[in-house]
Amino acid sequence: MLDIHWLNTFVTLARLEHFGKTANELHMTQPNVSLHIKQLEQTTRVKLIERNPFRLTQAGERLLQSAQNTLMELQICQADLNAINDLCQGTLTIAASDIISRLLLIGPFQLFKQEFPGIDLSLLNTTSSQAAELVKSAKADLGFVMAQKESQPLHFTELQQVKWCALGDGLKEWQQGKFGDNNEEPTLILLGHDTRTRDLIDSALPKLNLPKYRVMEVGSVDAQIDWAEAGFGVAIVPEFSLHPKLNLQTAISPLPEFPTTSLGYIVRQNQVLSRAIKQLLHWVDEEIISSQRVK
After folding, report:
1. CA separation (Å) from 11 to 41, 50, 88?
2. Which of 21, 155, 189, 224 qualifies as a FRET site for 239, CA 20 to 30 Å off?
3. CA-based diameter of the chain, in Å?
């Protein structure tokens, strides 16, 4: 019988390709990592790894695929059992981008902590693409994403439509080819790390009708807004990201020609949702309705 702990050690070692790093990640000693691999090889009666240099054998590659699927299924099963039992203690893990977290989740999280004090909220700050992978592998119970494409084994529920705007002075002049006295190319300030959102925006940039431009990439929507406010260019951002911002000094230009996208949440298909998750989603819905009233 294969021990689940041996399989977890083997999968982690295959990913990190280093015994010491595997021991650190799993909070084990390095000799125990070696022992798990030895026990696994003795039980399967096949050699699974070569050490110098590290590589998986053909048998190791085959076991890795099965072990990854087994561990994922067990994790999904445990998450569903927790939901069925209406777990009142433990951890609820949410994957969301920084902008979605701050604009939509702070208020609902505060209510959640009051209603479910025994459940810890764990927030993973990710891109939409990373959030999808975390939910798919059951490393996150729930993901909030933009521009999600419906795909197995995930189910996407739209919460609101996202429209785009340009924040920054001079866009109309630039569109007319007026670049100022020094004839400097205009700068578009774009998000640099969320590939799914960038794919959407990049394909729409020709609709700005700019003769030429250069791109400045930053790490967050807040950084886009700050750089645009400081006069370093025009930021292309979701309209909802500007709602909580007070006293913006630069021009805001709606971009109706840009394609709208969806903001919503993802869960695994056929995932059992606990009462706690359902209540959190209800509070997020209320947060969105409240933010739309104050536009």
Report:
1. 14, 15, 31
2. 155
3. 77
The model's pTM is 0.65
Question: Is the torsion defined by CA of 50, 54, 58, 64 positive or negative?
Answer: positive
Whether the bond between 256 and the residue before it is cis, its omega within 30 degrees of 0, is no
Instruction: Give the pairing type, strands 49-50 and 90-96.
Output: unpaired
Tell me what percent of the residues of the chain surpass a pLDDT of 70.
88
Structure token pair of residue 184: 């400097």
Which uninterrupted H or E stretch holds 54? none
Which run of H or E residues covers position 195?
helix 195-204
Q: Are 14 and 56 in contact (CB under 8 A)?
A: yes
Would you give the DSSP letter of residue 178? -
The 3-class SS string of 218-231 reads ECCHHHHHHHHHCC
Q: Each residue of 204-236: pLDDT tens digit?
A: 999 998 888 889 999 888 889 999 999 899 999
> Residue 129 pLDDT > 70, yes or no?
yes
Beta strands in 13-167 (DSSP E): 49-50, 55-56, 90-96, 119-125, 142-146, 154-162, 164-167
If you search the block for the tokens 């020709």, which residue do you land on?
Answer: 206
Q: Mean pLDDT check: name the lowest of 41-50, 122-131, 177-186, 217-226.
A: 177-186
For 7-39, give the DSSP string: HHHHHHHHHH--HHHHHHHHT--HHHHHHHHHH
Question: Cα(96)–Cα(109) distance, rounded to whole angstroms?
Answer: 13
Q: Taking a C-beta distance cutoff of 8 angstroms, is the pair 262, 238 a contact?
A: no
Please name the residue ranges forming H helices in 150-206.
171-175, 195-204
